[in-house]
Amino acid sequence: MSTEPRPAVVLLSGGMDSATVLAIAVAEGFRPHALSFRYGQRHLVELDAARRVAAALGAASHRVVDVDLGAFGGSALTADIPVPKDRAPAEIGHGIPSTYVPARNTLFLAYALAWAEVLPARDIFIGVNALDYSGYPDCRPEFLEAFERMANLATRIGVEEGSLRIHAPLLRLSKAEIIVRGRELGVDYGLTRTCYDPAPDGAACGRCDACALRLRAFAQLGLTDPAPYSSRTVG
């Protein structure tokens, strides 16, 4: 019986959640191959963070793929649309905000699926979260379950082995619980970047939904977020 670690593809944005998922994949004995995207996002600073995180957590490899979602726009992250800021906690998670990127997770998972077939790997990890999230439809468990069913129907590895899995270990965790889990696994959150609208020097704005959720979680734990901010507000 082989004792070699099983390969897995881990979607790695460079943010807090995906860094935690990479650490979880390592802890569970997988040999993770990290996959990031340059998709026309305004917060390209996250890709530098992804490279740091992949190296720090021991990813077997790390690829950055170009997918030009900016060609379509339709999102505050890929077009000249203001990023929502200073929203009350009650607003976040209700409705679909302008920072939703149409079909982003569907496309990212499809690319991860293609790489998984080539490696080959039967496991894909994604850092979506259904509790403290900003109302994105492609972060819901129903979406992940549907994609996994499709993946096992549409791929050679799925048809021949019927065992391709989409892992979303953070799905039912709060942001604070994610931080606790990551710290247990040695994640350095100072390496990560989450902000949707960072300053030119890469400092987080401290006011967008992503910053608000992250800062609130650290505050709930009595911790200071080690990432750089141009301003810090906690709702």
Offer a few descriptive terms.
235 residues, alpha/beta, Rossmann fold, 5-stranded parallel sheet, 11% strand
Describe the overall structure:
With 235 residues, the protein is α/β, with parallel strands linked by helices. The chain has one domain: HUPs (Rossmann fold). The protein is built from seven helices and five strands; from the N terminus they run βαβαβαβααβαα. A five-stranded parallel beta sheet has the order 3-2-1-4-5, sandwiched between helices. Strand 2, helix 2 and strand 3 form a beta-alpha-beta unit. It is globular. The mean pLDDT is 93.
SS element count, helices? 7
Strand content: 5-15%
According to CATH, the homologous superfamily is HUPs
Main pleated sheet: 5 strands, parallel
Short structural description:
The mean pLDDT is 93. The chain has a five-stranded parallel sheet with strand order 3-2-1-4-5, with helices on both faces. It is built from seven helices and five strands, in the order E-H-E-H-E-H-E-H-H-E-H-H.
